[in-house]
Structures are given as structure tokens and as C-alpha cells.
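DNA-directed RNA polymerases I and III subunit RPAC1: C-alpha cells wanted.
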Amino acid sequence: MPEEIHPHRLVHIASERVSHVSSTDYPGHWPGESYTWDLEFFRKSLQVDVKRLTPTTIDFDLVGTDAAIANALRRIMIGEVETIAVENVWVWQNTSVMQDEVLASRLGLVPLRINPARLESWTPNAVPTDANTISFEVQVTCTSRPFPPRGSTDPSELYENSSIYASHLRWKPVGAQAALPDWLADPPSVAKPDIVLVKLRPGQELNIEMHCVKSCGRDHAKYSPVATATYRLLPYIQILKPIPEQLQAKFMQSFSPGVMGKRRNKQEEWEVFVKDARKDTMSRNVFLYPEFEGAVKLTRVRDHFLFTIESAGQMAPNAILPEAIAVFRRKLRTVSKALDELMHPPEDAEPEVQEGGMELDA
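Answer:
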């Protein structure tokens, strides 16, 4: 049996509408119940549970908070977690068939595996230094191989450097970067070395220099550390009455694969049960059949968010959420400081006068 969930936490899914969507966790909404904000209660209720972690993706549950907080974290992960990307490109030589502007755009989208803490954030009027800029270069020439296989038509066998990959980008130390131990132990590199940038043929060459800076996805999508960042509410399915055995297969096919299962009950009869509600997409196909009317109740848990974060390669997937939380905390401190100054202005602060107005004594 699925875990019993308080009805106040459920969003109801009907055949043609969604109800009970508004938050009800505030004082006075439910008679006899108090939802006054309590920090200790929030600490006990808040949970982060990692369900799956791969080199590129993380799935985790965020439980015990409001949709506003979940969505704020999602938006911060997309647009405000800083990474490093190519910002300026100098094309000294390009005799390939690809235009300089197109090639520069492709280079800017190559994800770089560099710890953002190594650089200072870039500002529009900043001067490039070893503290805020990392340099890469590409210097390659396509030539014919001296002894290609007889009868081969594969360009990789006929020519040297016939395809230019992201792995051809080479870090060029600037200033004191070449003397820093952590830079030498883990030098800046590309996150996806097998990305094809351009193809060359004998006699064609590239000589390009790139400057990389630290910024965030709010300035340009190439700085965003995530390819996708999504969440959905946890499905909660209740079977209200037994499903006849001759309809059980049809009932199970009304849900996503793996959601429903079959087992024998105490009377040794086959019954349908909720096997894994997380896999359901809430297609509501079960409501299409009149024979299942009143047999099942579909809901979602309003404060249980299922996150899926796919890293674009600049950062490990399990490092993105902590960075987003750190950004969130800095924003909260800024708002808190502004509110404090608004409520308790300095005694020596001059009263603000709107343009065209005048001060009047009370």
C-alpha cells in the first residue's frame, strides 16, 4: 500500500480539470489548525533525496517546500549559476568552407570543464587579465596522408586533421596561470572532446585564439550549466474499489508502463495494485472508459517535487544544486539587507525628494 498522505497536500486530477491547486498552508484556512511559520518545523519537513546520479544527470526529490521555492531554484540553475565559456574569438586564419562568424558561434557553444571559482566574474568594461580570462587556441592544418589504404574513400584515412574536434582546443596559460599548482594539476579543457567543429581538406588551415570568461545563463545560454532542468509533482494514485479480473489488463494499460501491478490477495484472487506511482505521466486515459468510473482517484502531492537535472558538461550534475542554493542565499541576504535599511534608515540619511516635488513641514 502507498504511504498515506494528508488530503491537504493533494492536488486533484479530474477528467477535464485540475482542482485544489491553491496552497492552503497559511494560518486560518483550516479551522482548528495553525500553519504559522515555524523554522524548526520547516527544517524537519524539508528533505532532499537523490534518486539517481549519472555522470551527466541527477534525479532528486525536494519535499516539504512550496512551488515558489522549487521554481526559484530551477530558474537559478538555468540562468544564474556561473560557468566559463568562450566570449571573444580572434580568427587569424580560416580557409575552411565555414564562415568566420559561424565558426566563432560554434566555438562559443563548446562546454568547458573549468572550475568557475578560478576566475573573477566578467564585467562589461573589464580589462582581460589572468584573474578574469582564460585563453585557448586552435592551430591545425589538413594534409594528405603519405600512404593511405588502397581504394579507401574515408577522409579520416586519406587526410590528417580532416575533422576538427573540440579536443583540438588547447589551453594557453596567461600570466601567473602557468605557475599555479592547481591549474597545472587540472588544466582547463573541453567537457565534450568529440564535438565536431568543422571539416577540412588538404591545404585548409585554422589559426584561432579564444578568450573565455565567467558569466551566467542570464547573459547568454552558453553559460548555463544545465541542458534541461525540470520538475513535476509526485503522482499519488488510489484504487477505490476492486477491478474485475476480466478488466484488469485494460485498467493497467490505461497507465504508463510499470505504474500498476498484479498480485494475489488473501482470498487467492488476482488484484491490481499501485506498483510505482512515480512512473505515471497523469495521462488520465483511465477516465476514458465508463467501466472505471469511480474506481480510481488521481492526485499529485503539492509539496513533493521530482527534479531532473541534466548537466551541459561544465559542472558535475551533483554540484549544480548546491551552487544554486548558494546563489539563492546571496539573493536573500541582499533582500534582507534592503528591507532592514528600509525599515531602519540611517539617522544621517537625507529624505528622498521626487523630481519636481518639494518638502513640506507637517
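The first helix runs from residue 39 to 45. The domain at 83-223 is CATH 2.170.120.12 (RNA Polymerase Alpha Subunit; Chain A, domain 2).

Cheers.
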